[in-house]
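step: validate -> pass
step: tokenize input -> pass
step: predict -> running
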Amino acid sequence: MKPRLGILLSGRGSNFEAIAQNVLSGNLDCEIGFVFSNKPNAPGLARAREFGLPCGSIPSAGIERTLFDSQVADLLIDHGVNWVCLAGYMRFLSGQFVSQFSNRILNIHPSLLPAFPGLDAQYQALTHGVKITGCTVHFVNEDLDSGPILLQSAVPVLDNDTVESLSARILVEEHRIYSEAIAWMLRGNYRIEGRRVIQT
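step: predict -> pass
step: emit ->
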């Protein structure tokens, strides 16, 4: 049986769509087992339905974080999910969830971590006047945007950049390297030493 990905998203899901296209074309040797959103009306869920993928939602408002994450984990496990990919999932995962999928959760972040973690990374880059930013695919641990790094891609910051123009160029690289990182993860030819991911 092929590995099964669980995709978690909160919005439009453009990184999910890029992953799905690579799965459907055979560029990624896996299946998408379940697409989940904490937002029932997330455009990414509608796109998952168009792809014919199993998907669902649990509204997160008013539910204690650990209980909510337990319900999400149960959904993923019920659908045979082995690996979890966050694709614009705007929730901080509980330690319980992370431990259930230890070293099997990936996230993509629009900066060259450890620079500019958290929200509005592109705005942070412009505000700090950096000349290069980019995106990072990393394993998820219990701390914000601080897990071991698999892949990064640099994007120059232009003098006339806005948050929107910079975000658009970073997104192109996100779509490219996320699937590359997933392929690397699925092959398993790496080891994790502290914060470092070393190819073997």
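step: describe -> Residues 163-187 form the longest helix (25 residues).
step: cleanup -> pass
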